[in-house]
Design brief:
Elements lengths: L2 H40 L4 E5 L2 H14 L11 E3 L4 H10 L7 H7 L5 E5 L6 H12 L3 E6 L11 E4 L5 H21 L4
Parallel strand pairs: 1-2, 1-3, 3-4, 4-5
Helix pairs in contact: 1-6, 2-6, 4-5
């Protein structure tokens, strides 16, 4: 076996362990989150997403799946990626601090009954923790997608912790879980 094939075998193994472990450990939590998100949309509420780095991009990706469509052709759903507005991010980061970039947006846009879904592979990002804290104080429901190091987090109502410490595999599992969330929400009864 060549060095490249050994690396690819290890990458595949670690990826599958992260994804399968996340689904096995948190399938019920993901289902509960999907019910909550679907109910929030039915009640004309909004769902916010945030993260840092690759997770910020994942937040924008999944918000786009709800506003556009994932699989089914359906009405647009009010999902907002808090990482998408560079003007707000740089103004708040400059005038306040980087720790406030998402919390200030929740203060401005979040209402009781809305949902904040935060992505942090470590579960310890100060701006994510502050956003979750502000969201809870304002009466939003909260969920944290994290990795093994964040599994004991009490910062969110629902915590989905991928059983891995490898950032890339945590993010890959997050996207599988977020796509599953979109699928479950689209399949939810309209009531």
């Amino acid at each position: 076996m060549t060095h490249a094939s050994e690396l690819l075998t290890r990458i595949r193994r670690d990826h599958l362990a992260a994804v399968e472990g996340a689904i096995e450990l948190h399938g019920q939590t993901l289902s509960a989150l999907a019910d909550l998100v679907a109910a929030t949309f039915r009640a004309q509420g909004r769902v916010f997403f945030c993260g840092n780095g690759g997770s910020a991009c994942d937040a924008m990706h999944i918000a786009g799946e709800f506003v556009g469509r994932f699989v089914d052709d359906r009405a647009a759903l009010p999902a907002i990626a808090l990482s998408a507005d560079s003007g707000i991010l740089t103004a708040v980061g400059n005038d306040y601090s980087f720790e406030d970039i998402y919390a200030r947006q929740i203060e401005a846009l979040g209402h009781k009954g809305d949902v904040l879904i935060a992505l942090s592979t470590s579960g310890r990002s100060p701006n994510i923790l502050k956003a979750l804290s502000v969201a809870k104080a304002r009466g939003l429901h909260t969920a944290l997608f994290t990795g093994e190091k964040g599994k004991e987090s009490r910062s969110a109502d629902l915590v989905i912790a991928v059983p891995s410490v490898i950032t890339a595999h945590i993010q890959e599992a997050h996207m599988v879980m977020l796509h599953a969330l979109a699928t479950l929400v689209e399949a939810a009864p309209a009531e």
